[in-house]
Amino acid sequence: MAADEPLVLGIETSCDETGVGIVRGTTLLADAVASSVDTHARFGGVVPEIASRAHLEAMVPTIERALKEAGISARDLDGIAVTSGPGLAGALLVGVSAAKAYAYALGKPLYGVNHLASHICVDQLEHGPLPEPTMALLVSGGHSSLLLAPDITADVRPLGATIDDAAGEAFDKIARVLNLGFPGGPVIDRLAREGDPNAIAFPRGLTGPRDAPYDFSFSGLKTSVARWIEAKRAAGEEVPVRDVAASFQEAVVDVLTRKAVRACKDEGVDHLMIGGGVAANSRLRALAQERCERAGIRLRVPRPKLCTDNGAMVAALGAEMVARNRLPSDLELSADSSLPVTEPHVPGAAHAHAHSHDHDHVHEISKDNLYS
């Protein structure tokens, strides 16, 4: 870690976790997270308004915790990065508003970055600089995407995506049918280890010869599993929860890994990065490793804590933006709930005057009073 590498704070509020990370170059200094998942659990899913309010309450304490953990002052930062999309609009607005306030008060450049591109860039904190191009499989509660990134700061190309339910969403819905609670991914992963993945032949969506080679569909699988469970219950039979969990999980990870390896071969890329919350799934990691080794592909998967939503991934992409001299965002930056992955960050044309507040009385008071 060199002292001249960019020191960046990242803020992530796209869903139900308030994440604040601090990165110097590709070295992680702090990763503070405040989650509201327990509050949402009794509703069986994320409630946007509750998530937004939780972000408001957690924002300043989480930033202060990250600064303390990193052992730095806010004045030491070279930039502030924030997820500006995609995600829940209200939740995103809390993070963007906070980032703009800190950037303004500190006189630091602001970088509005893409949530999906951040999930790719976080792997730099684990395995060093990303290869160019990078092939990435991103799987989470809201996204299932195959992406080719020649330049993570400026050129991210979608090869395929889910046409209906994302993989993580399917896990949550099946967990609900099985009365396993929310979120569904961790509990299904745990139960599946004690089940037989070949017990039930659930369908593999979009794997026919005429189907889009890199797109995903889990809606049909979800319906098939739900109907199988309903039929068992209607017949008065006990549902073999562990076998259902294992067979369902196998159907999901089979399709994900098969299509990802095919994309690597077709594009001539000799490595695969897997990110997003579902990348913490143990069976996905194991099957991906097995298939990548067989195909001569190097697999890069961050540790589970860096796969779920966090501020470290935003800081990692922000640091890369600074290192490559990408144009910062304006203070007029807004949240974009449907920000396309083809826009890794949101540059601003008005940067030249956005931070020229050296003689602004309110600005100077803000800096003197708020930051040491």
Can you describe what's shown?
By secondary structure, this protein is α/β, with parallel strands linked by helices. The chain is built from 14 helices and eleven strands. It has helices at residues 37-41, 48-70, 89-106, 115-121, 124-127, 167-177, 184-192, 219-234, 241-267, 282-295, 304-307, 311-323, 351-354, 361-370; strands at residues 7-12, 17-24, 27-35, 79-85, 110-114, 134-139, 144-151, 155-161, 271-275, 298-300, 345-346. Helix 2 packs parallel to helix 3, helix 6 packs across helix 7 (184-192) and helix 8 (219-234) runs antiparallel to helix 9 (241-267). The chain is globular, with a radius of gyration of 21 Å. Residues 351-372 have low confidence and may be disordered.
Binned, the helix content reads 40-55%
Task: Report the end-to-end length measured between terminal Cα atoms.
Answer: 24 Å
Number of helices: 14
Radius of gyration: 21 Å
Q: Outline the biggest β-sheet.
A: 6 strands, mixed
Nearest-integer average pLDDT? 92
Number of strands: 11
String of helices and strands:
EEEHHEHEHHEEEHHHHEHEHHEHH
Broad structural category = alpha/beta
* Rough outline: globular
